[in-house]
């Protein structure tokens, strides 16, 4: 099978491990970890659709560390999450099935076209609301949340990077969650969309399981440290790092595929 022919040197593997750690840290705080994972996998030589599948495999398991910390600190609004998870699963599965219909060369161009959108989404200013008791209406829980999560889930399956930031912004601006609560609940919703998309990529044979083991461990550690930081200090520490990293990665991708 073509996926078994991919040969990575030790230094490339080391760079991917570092990228997965940084992506986990950033994703757990402010979202946007996929903006590091996806370009890193492509630059390492993975075909675009495999890069998408590998990113889903790594981030699905890595997010568990952040979820554990946020649940432990009682930041999850369970009735909202319960209606959002099925929508995230369905939306991301359909999105992944759609991207798998394209040829790899077309997928690479789609990724380059969408990356600036994902970057801008992650860097949109977020004005924090003070933490308060959140009381959602039935309309919000049973209609607005499922619609939001389905649409964002479809985007996650089709492309992915920036999904965490998209979810945080939606919860923050539409449902008026404070940033830490929005980040906490976005992790469970993002986990569901990761799983839905991952199922489609696994069925299509677009994941590398052995390569994923060290990358998942690095992403787990990054998620754990990042979510602990978010609970204590909030998302400010991430913004500068994210903007610099994304600019460099975007420039490298454009050079590789266009210039």
Question: What can you tell me about this protein's structure?
Answer:
This protein has 259 residues and is an all-alpha fold. The protein has one domain. It is 78% helix and 0% strand. It has ten helices and no strands. It has helices spanning 10-30, 34-43, 48-72, 78-99, 104-123, 138-158, 163-173, 179-203, 209-233, 236-257. Helix 2 (34-43) packs antiparallel against helix 3 and helix 6 packs across helix 8 (179-203). It is globular, with a radius of gyration of 17 Å. The model has no long low-confidence stretch (mean pLDDT 81).
List the SSEs and their pairings.
Elements: H1 10-30, H2 34-43, H3 48-72, H4 78-99, H5 104-123, H6 138-158, H7 163-173, H8 179-203, H9 209-233, H10 236-257
Helix pairs in contact: 1-2, 1-3, 1-9, 2-3, 2-10, 3-8, 3-9, 4-6, 4-8, 5-7, 5-10, 6-7, 6-8, 7-8
Concise overview:
By secondary structure, the protein is an all-alpha fold.
Number of domains: 1
Helical/strand content category: mainly alpha
Radius of gyration: 17 Å
Distance between the termini: 30 Å
Q: How much helicity do the residues have?
A: over 70%
Overall morphology: globular
Oligomer: single chain
Order of helices and strands: HHHHHHHHHH
Count of individual helical segments:
10
Poorly predicted sequence stretches spanning 5 or more consecutive residues? none
